[in-house]
Amino acid sequence: MKLLVTGGAGYIGSVVAAQLLEAGHRVVVLDDLSTGHADAVPEGAELVRGTLRDKALEVLEGAGFDAVLHFAAKSLVGESVERPGLYWDRNLGESLALLDAMRETGVDRIVFSSTAATYGEPERTPILETDPTRPTNPYGATKLAIDATLTEFARLYGIGGVSLRYFNVAGAYGRFGERHTVETHLIPNVLAVAAGTRESVNVFGEDYPTPDGTCVRDYIHVVDLGRAHLLALEACTPGTHRIYNLGNGNGFSVREVIEVCREVTGHPIPANVGPRRPGDPAVLVASSEKIQSELGWKPEHDLRQMVSDAWAFLQSRA
Ligand code: UFG
């Protein structure tokens, strides 16, 4: 297939672009490089630099694309609370421009990066796709709005869409890994201590109603996540919008993650306990039963593998 990958210069987009190329697809990456890196775009993919508003129509027009994988987004929860307008504009606004361009050019399949943040504070775990969606921050709200837009575009214009609701993505795929300028995620921050670029890790709160008092999350390897995109692509059915959770179904606390990082790196990794980070739910664990039964996807990598792949990636860049 000929595929447009928006955000293909970012962490997850670059991994999936690499996997798509290996599967024999042709890939064009559209990325404004606001947070991505041109050298993260895999060899064999063409990079078009620009926003979706400026370039999506131009790129799709008459070029014979079969489908779009849409990763481009602003994705920092804290920043979204500080600058909600930016998130609505860049996430929903740019996605609408992309969908309009798809409609105009007759490209009718899309796989979209949604998020567990659409659920907000869950009433129960593991979270099912049918559970209430009450995002607690603008980031989650914008992604939920795009999911709703996809449902409408499927109904009104026959688009075939799949939204994948990622839980906590981690790990690396060879030379493709996390390279955020502002790093907020737990695993890269913990590994930065082992690499000597940070002094200690901050544990955001240990008074949560969890076994060790720290937040519990469902970590999924970026390679497993990528494989789900290839399956989702095959499952896009015109006129239908499907939503799937993507996680491993196991919860690990912040303290457990730090412990695995200590074991993998052999570094003591000093940790300090600080206050809670606003907006963090205590426990987020996915039920991925739906994608397992409908698309035959299965996670193959555990937390230790995610940490050791992320560690190898970090060391390769040192
Ligand atoms: N944490 C720390 N110290 C740190 C960084 C994180 O204690 O230095 C804690 C957080 O408080 C949280 C856990 O580690 O409890 C995981 O935090 P991350 O920032 O790695 O990930 P989040 O769970 O906050 O967010 C991730 C994605 C979001 C997405 C969300 C959905 O980054 O984009 O999952 O669940 F919205």
SS summary, helix count: 10
Task: Name the CATH architecture of the largest domain.
Answer: 3-Layer(aba) Sandwich
How many domains?
2
Report the order of strands and helices.
Answer: EHEEHEHHEHEEHEEEHEEHEEHH
Give, in spatial order, the strands making up the sheet with the most strands. Answer: 3-2-1-4-5-6-11
* The CATH top-level class label of the largest domain: Alpha Beta
Based on secondary structure, the structural category is: alpha/beta
Q: List segments where confidence is low: pLDDT < 50 over at least 5 consecutive residues.
A: none
Bound molecules: uridine-5'-diphosphate-4-deoxy-4-fluoro-alpha-D-galactose
Give the N-terminus to C-terminus distance in angstroms.
Answer: 36 Å
Task: Give the strand tally.
Answer: 14
The CATH topology of the largest domain corresponds to: Rossmann fold
The main sheet comes to:
7 strands, parallel
Gyration radius, to the nearest Å? Answer: 19 Å
CATH homologous superfamily name of the largest domain? NAD(P)-binding Rossmann-like Domain
